[in-house]
């Protein structure tokens, strides 16, 4: 293995823009901020009755996905049989190819739910996400080689470490070290990967760069979250990712997975299921309350008609929903009159993290909101506009939280977890917990 690959690590979060173009037809409305707020409250508010219908529809989709292969929500068997028992110890490598970064980790398990982790992140560019598929895996192998050599100080003479590859895109699996990509998500579009075994492609790249590891498993980030969280806290029942993409995983008994009956596994055997619920209501949407902004985002994406639920809830898209609303108001002549708004005209120019900053601004004058618009877009704002922006950010975020709660509630109801929902199971999203209780 070469002593250095020249791959540079970085620590900065990057959200990559989609290159497609969309627009909203200008309509002169001459509305006040209060009138606009009422309009968007009507568009983005998800009422309890609609949520109950969505929960039932999602639970039906989950059921169908367990019955047979090829369903819209695929309910992927992961061949992860049960949880760790907390006594596991040793050093393990993990490679996580997410939607924005490539993360390489050395995890040291110490037993009793304790562990240490050393990690480095590498930049994934938009060009790499759309370039030839094998080149993408070559880059992963180079980053892994750099981490082993430069960060860990290991050589080719050291014993090969076991590696788990976290590949967080819908795949079919027939064993734990095999994964055939069904479709890309999170803005990826690298050709010649869909329909192929990503383990074999990655193994080819590892051999090309002589990386001394043993690939032992391929899992989604959601499955990894479920197993790792249960290792730390055995009360954990569901692993959920709300990030650039979205997904959930939980433990199912094989007897409830009819499509696996041919394998002859015991009915009471537990296996982690990666729901891939981002695909809910795809292709022929009939359940989700999509706005015209959601439709624009879908139609201008690199995968129109796919991952419809994900495009309404995931961090990659929420900032774009907000930006499209602003563009509509600018075109109507009711926002930023006389100012240069060209920076806002670029697709995905408004990062979802800005919504969180605006919503949590504690100052009377909303100084954080001032900073976002003046620093990043060169735009001056009035207090009335800033108050509207904060309210709009909350509306969009709350809609995403409620949609996420519907997915969680569907799993909770399916598995009978309702009486067990508490802060130990779902640690970080108190609104989701309360919404689950109400549904």
Summarize the structure in words.
By secondary structure, the chain is α+β, with helices and mostly antiparallel strands. The protein contains 13 helices and twelve strands. The strands form three sheets. A six-stranded mixed β-sheet has the order 1-5-4-3-6-9, with helices on both faces. Strand 4 and strand 5 form a beta hairpin. The termini are far apart.
Core attributes:
single chain, 439 residues, 6-stranded mixed beta sheet, 4-stranded antiparallel beta sheet, globular, disordered N terminus
Concise synopsis of the structure shown:
Helices cover 38% and strands 16% of the residues. It has helices spanning 33-44, 48-67, 126-130, 133-151, 198-208, 221-232, 292-299, 310-313, 315-331, 352-359, 367-377, 383-415, 430-438; strands at 9-10, 76-77, 89-97, 101-111, 114-123, 161-167, 171-172, 180-181, 213-219, 238-242, 246-253, 270-274.
